[in-house]
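Pasting as-is:
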Amino acid sequence: MPSKSLPAVVLVGRPNVGKSTLFNRIVGRRRAIVNEMAGTTRDQIEQPADWRNVTFSLTDTAGMFGQSEDPLQELVLEHGHRALVTADVFVFVVDGREGLVPADLEIASAIRTAGRPVIVAINKTDDRRARSGALDFYELGFEPIVEISAEHGQGTGDLLDEIIAKLPSSGGARGEEDSPVVEPRIAVAGRPNVGKSSLVNRILREERMLVSDVAGTTRDAIDVPFQWHKRQFRIVDTAGIRKPGRVARSGPVEAVSVLTARRAVADADVVVLVIDATLGAADQDGAIAGEAERAGRGLVIAVNKWDLVRGQGQEFSEKFDDKLRFNLKFLDYAPIVHISALTGERTPKLLEVIDKVMQGRQRKIPTPELNKFFAAITASHPIPSPGRTAIRILYAAQVGIAPPTFALFTNVATELHFSYERFIKNQLREKFGFVGSPIRLQIRKRKRTGGKGVKGKS
């Protein structure tokens, strides 16, 4: 049995939502019996669990909620309520396939009175049917919400990260050095010979990367840790990415290099798109940036070799940036920094901007503040409504970070005019500082929950 001093994490939820499967997945062995019959679990099964060197006690609360014909149900409830009282964190497991039902609202009311942190785990989201209704669970009023598949293990790592973040700081920790340092990843990408490796060397303050005028000098995506302002980062130097036709003609080596570079872009937290100031932006720069945007990565445009054109004056600088924005229209949110990797000009500024983008990607806006924001902007700039019924945003919630993602529940609409969506994104950036990061909006017509109860299987 786990020590009483361990912080307690308690799984709650309706019958057959997958609590026992999740319990087994977290403790790492088949400790709880899993069966389709509701009420299979009676005892409050408690086991120690460990994640990132943090240990806690995990409890499966059995069939506390939902109808049951079990003759021992009163004892089950008595033991279950004891677990609720001792909980430090609740994991509220819901069924993504069935969606939000009245019984979930009853459970939410019961655990809300305990005054403990609550994490909602939407189970069975490996099923396509579950994905469309996942946003409805924000009506429960709890955050964060994590989508998982207890059976297949999908999303359980994210859930465990949220659990240990909510645990009491003194309990279960094994020391200050137990939790590994998370190193944000910066991918330096662009066409060949724009100065990517020179920039990485300048940031690292050493000749770590091979630099040559020969296109394709860098083949591997080489990542190196570095420290800036007492914070740890990891920078990735990628191979130059050319057009697919040219890559195909050059042979398998470059093909693999480009594939590795694209993976580095997809895995990064922030992508620095390096552009040669003497050449300007090309279609291929847009293609590289498009991959970063689709992957939801933060993006900074670094115009390198600015020392070669700086003497042409302020007017040239303004025209250059205007043309750059025109060629990369969808990147109007990405900051532009003029640098010289050769001389080191403005590379400290580049790091400051990268750090600002990273912080913005992780920003979480409290739901009340977010709803006040939307009430204000829709009052001053009403939503264009193609039909007779005026479109109103009834409720808004931030459902994700990195990139910032927002669910907007409306009275009638499942989509907004693209110009109004752009307006919303611009207002969000201006108000909350989401600089350099794409913003995702999910528009949904709010669904009313019916009043019928849910029968548990016995």
